[in-house]
Write a structure and sequence with these properties.
Elements lengths: L8 E3 L3 H6 L2 E6 L10 H15 L4 E6 L4 H12 L3 E7 L6 H8 L3 E5 L1 H9 L5 H6 L3 E3 L7 H7 L13 E6 L3 H7 L6 E5 L7 H8 L5 E4 L12 H14 L8 H13 L8 E6 L11
Parallel strand pairs: 2-10, 3-4, 3-6, 4-5, 7-8, 7-10, 8-9
Antiparallel strand pairs: 1-2
Helix pairs in contact: 2-3, 2-7, 3-4, 7-8
The structure holds pyridoxal-5'-phosphate.
Amino acid sequence: MIEIAPLAITTLKSNFLEKANVCIDVLRLDAIHPHISGNKFFKLKYNIDHVLDNGLEGIISFGGAYSNHLHALACAGNMHNIKTIGIVRGDEVENETLKDCIGWGMKLIFIPRSDYKIATQNSSLPQKIKDEFPNYYILPEGGANELAVKACTEILKDVTIANYNKIAVSVGTATTLIGILESCNIPIMAFASFKKAAYMHNTITAKTKNTNYTLIDDYCFGGFGKINSELRSFMKSFYKEYGIELDRIYTAKMMYGILEMVEKKQIHSGEKLLVLHTGGLQGNRTIL
Ligand SMILES: *Cc1c(COP(=O)(O)O)cnc(C)c1O
């Protein structure tokens, strides 16, 4: 897979943070590449290499209609001459995300939510699809596998971790979080993008011995993919104040939580945070 430059860091500057005496540095995974952006770059990296090294014909993966994962996969497949198939949850729809995927040559197959659930939970595709695409590599939903974790352990490679006393990351499948836990020893604030996140502990502890994290689901705004006017206006004011665009599914919710925790002094004077901007900005193009 393509090589990337060391990740940039942006320090947030405002009277609010200065007064609170809290330092927030943002690690800009969103700036890696215009399309293969954020943590999805890392999650795909060794999976793409695996397919190339083994001469497989293509990759089949799964996602919702706004999936950052399918979007990045379609682009990466196009760049490396790997055929891609996206199994999309639910009824056929059109949006900017899927238009790009089709433009990059991804074949989309829409399947009912009930079948999708079975297919993603057991990584068992409907037989018809298996028969049609025999020499394809099956990549789990969100690209969440061992090779993805391996690449996520490299996210902090060029960061001087000693500069920080906490790291914040947003959580979907927790693959990125697990990679971070495997690669450093400082406390991690893990912001869940969905409600009742406690069940994720089993997934996490099955894959890493490092339990130095706190799972926070107070800032998911009612559930995965849910947005409201408060979150929308936060994204606008955050951009105005700090010049950084956030995505509405993951990073906006995390950043809202972080700034509220600073205000409530749950993040204290003197703390130095590294916050991962995991990308996902392509999803903002479709108005919800
Ligand atoms: C996919 C995604 C996440 C979640 O990453 P996981 O490794 O699945 O936990 C976080 N932020 C953004 C922007 C994403 O696209």
